[in-house]
Specification:
By secondary structure, this protein is an alpha/beta fold. The chain has helices spanning 13-26, 57-72, 80-87, 90-93, 95-109, 114-127, 143-154, 167-171, 174-178, 217-225, 241-248, 283-291, 298-301; strands at 40-43, 158-166, 185-188, 193-197, 200-204, 232-235, 256-261, 294-297.
């Protein structure tokens, strides 16, 4: 008797469809067989592999960094955008082409070496706790999606994270948490600068040539950094809408689209059209039936949301 490769999933249409799709594309005897080289799966991160409420985890890191810097230099609090960030007024930060957000990112993510930034993220992950769940942020990955990542990896797929989050932020922990190598992270980036300091090579983060990897930028990022069209796409919001379309519409190979729908206010959060954080889901959800995208109802379809703290 074959063991269940997705034990945290209830028997559902999405689970059945995935378990039917994989043999089609990995069995050499199948007319839909896809070579290992073309087995590319892309996953959004925030809201798809771990929560994005009450704010995205990178934003929580940025706010903690901002508070630390304001404490060291109180004059920074004179900025209206810093005030908005500390007050949680994210709509203000997103006005005028993300001008406020760029200012806050510059204070917390730019003009710091890659090594110093990595150390700051590691220290934050070690000490910070989610305000609702009381656990380390990197312990709050979705157990069902972790199982899917492992299942695909075992079937010869290359799993990529394609996220609006910062590439440097995710690369700190992504291999340890998801088993996905650093080079398979496609996120938002700025062009770093290089120099020799006392004969030692140093890369410093900057906001020059800033690329925000969200919405229509995701297919462009996939083409630029992966160079192969995915056949599996997993997302959770309208920020992933274009990526789902790129993966499934007119793809000459069989393809699979999956949307994680946040419906569980008891174990996680319940939202779609109205959300206090990122993750608005309207257009992609409406288009899902016509496109054959599989919608995972978190409350109904998942036996568990998070893994055990010691697992």
């Amino acid at each position: 008797m074959t063991s269940d490769p997705l034990p945290s999933w209830n028997d559902s249409a999405a689970k059945s469809a995935m378990l039917a799709f994989l043999p089609r594309v990995t069995d050499e005897r199948s007319s839909d067989f896809i070579p290992v080289s073309d087995r590319v799966a892309v996953f959004d991160n925030d809201g798809t592999l771990w929560p994005e409420n009450p704010i995205p985890f990178q934003a929580a890191f940025g706010l903690d960094e901002l508070r630390r810097r304001v404490e060291a230099d109180p004059e920074l609090s004179a900025s209206p955008m810093v005030q908005a960030a500390l007050a949680g007024d994210f709509s203000k930060l997103l006005e005028d082409g993300y001008a406020g957000l760029r200012e806050v990112i510059a204070l917390t993510h730019a003009e710091v070496t890659i090594d110093a930034f990595r150390d700051a993220v590691e220290a934050w992950l070690a000490g910070a706790r989610h305000p609702r769940f009381g656990r380390r942020y990197d312990e709050l990955t979705y157990q069902p999606m972790q199982e899917l990542l492992r299942l695909l990896d075992g079937r010869g797929f290359k799993n990529f994270i394609v996220s609006g989050g910062g590439t440097d932020f995710m690369r700190v922990w992504v291999e340890r948490v998801y088993g996905i190598p650093h080079e398979r992270v496609v996120g938002s980036t700025g062009r770093p600068s290089f120099e020799l300091r006392d004969g030692v090579p140093v890369l410093t983060k900057s906001l020059e040539h800033l690329f925000i990897n969200d919405k229509h930028a995701k297919p462009a990022g996939i083409h630029q950094f992966i160079g192969r069209r995915p056949i599996i796409c997993c997302g959770n919001s309208d920020g992933d809408h274009a990526m789902l379309q790129y993966t499934t519409i007119g793809n000459p190979r069989p393809s699979f689209g999956l949307i994680v729908h946040h419906t569980d206010g008891e174990r996680e959060y319940a939202y779609d059209a109205v959300t206090k954080s990122t993750g608005k889901l309207v257009a992609a959800l409406a288009e899902a039936p016509a496109r054959g995208w599989h919608v995972v109802d978190m409350k109904r379809d998942w036996k568990a949301v998070f893994g055990h703290p010691d697992s």
